[in-house]
Design brief:
The chain is an alpha+beta fold. It is about 35% helix and about 20% strand. The chain is globular and about 45 Å long. It binds aspartic acid.
């Protein structure tokens, strides 16, 4: 073999070896290395959350670290639907749900967690330090404390207190949405409080991201529906419902009425539809249509939205009601989009 051919052969093999070792490190056999990180997250609060994620993604960090750091920003802020200052359940307690999933199919989740500021980080510890996927209630809290998370005093934020007092007047447990309004102020049972004081900036935060190595991860964190029954879990802590990641295909997260997301294993459904060749938006729309078919006329009363990212870095969303916003950050843009919806 000539020296030139030997050189070519060895350099081809060493590049292949390098590529394979990166792929193996990345944990997925079919990874395309896009070198172009991207993060998307639900609602207006996603803008700040994406900025938190970008500190990691923009520095060639891992998507898993980015999606944890990103939604911690929302958990730290005072808002209706995420973190300790959020709307309580009907008995006046704030209970938090969160889950996280990485590019290797590892996942962790906590549900009905009280008095812990960062449920997303507890979910990550469940994933990394226990043989389980999901811990709930006092067991989740016990695990969090053992892991060094401080047990906070529950103190409702002024907004949550006002909203709860307002809700107590009627104690009506039913979803209310404002679909007449061109810019809906909210959705789900937490909406009435926000319709009364005219504000809604935040909701469940779901985030999915791809890092510079082309690996995907996702996170989702919420206080769930405001004024829910005590003990209620929605879709957000359920892998496959509120969040799903498949590193070969894409990732999806959901927001809105959790019961109806669970009914169709929403996020998993969207990822499987992308596997069959649909774009992220087509897949989100098809999942929404599935809910519409099941709910019939009752679909008018609820909001559900899906937000997805595929392996090519394409993004898309679709909602039942108008007004669902999502934030996108990449090397090229930083933008808040409004999703298309079933009802116009
Ligand atoms: N999906 C959340 C839940 O059902 C609520 C929301 O997104 O507003 O708990």
């Amino acid at each position: 073999m000539s020296n030139r051919r030997k050189f070519l052969r060895s350099s081809i093999f060493s590049s292949f070896g390098l590529l394979m070792s990166r792929k193996l490190q990345a944990g997925a056999p079919y990874v395309t290395m896009t070198g172009s990180p991207i993060v998307i997250s639900t609602w207006d609060a996603g803008v700040a959350a994406n900025a938190g994620a970008w500190k990691i993604l923009g520095n060639n960090g891992r998507a898993l670290d980015a999606v944890e750091a990103g939604v911690r920003v929302t958990e730290d802020s005072i808002n209706c639907c995420v973190g300790l200052g959020a709307n309580p359940d009907r008995d006046g307690f704030v209970t938090l749900d969160a889950c996280i999933m990485d590019e290797k199919g590892n996942c962790g989740s906590v549900g009905f967690l009280e008095r812990i500021k960062h449920p997303i980080s507890v979910a990550r510890r469940v994933m990394e330090k226990t043989p389980h996927v999901m811990l709930v209630g006092s067991g989740a809290q016990q695990f969090a404390v053992a892991e060094g998370f401080p047990l906070e005093e529950q103190k409702l934020s002024d907004d949550a207190k006002k909203a709860y007092e307002q809700w107590l007047k009627k104690s009506e447990y039913k979803p209310v949405i404002n679909i007449e309004n061109t810019k809906p102020k909210g959705h789900g049972p937490s909406a009435p409080a926000y319709l009364s004081n005219g504000e809604l900036n935040h909701d469940t935060i779901g985030m999915v991201a791809m890092d510079a190595a082309g690996d995907l991860s996702g996170s989702c964190t919420t206080s769930g529906m405001g004024f829910k029954m005590r003990g209620r879990l929605g879709d957000s802590p359920i892998i496959g419902a509120g969040l799903f990641v498949d590193n070969e295909v894409g990732a999806c997260t959901a927001t809105g009425q959790g019961e109806d997301v669970i009914r169709i294993c929403g996020s998993h459904t969207v990822v499987e539809l992308m596997r069959q060749g649909m774009t992220p938006e087509q897949a989100c729309k098809a999942a929404v249509e599935r809910i519409i078919r099941i709910k019939g006329e009752k679909a008018k009363e609820i909001q559900v939205a899906f937000l997805a990212l595929n392996k090519k870095g394409e993004t898309g969303a679709f909602a039942i009601q108008k007004g669902f916003s999502y934030a996108l950050k990449s090397n090229r843009e930083e933008k808040l989009y409004t999703a298309k919806s079933w009802y116009l």
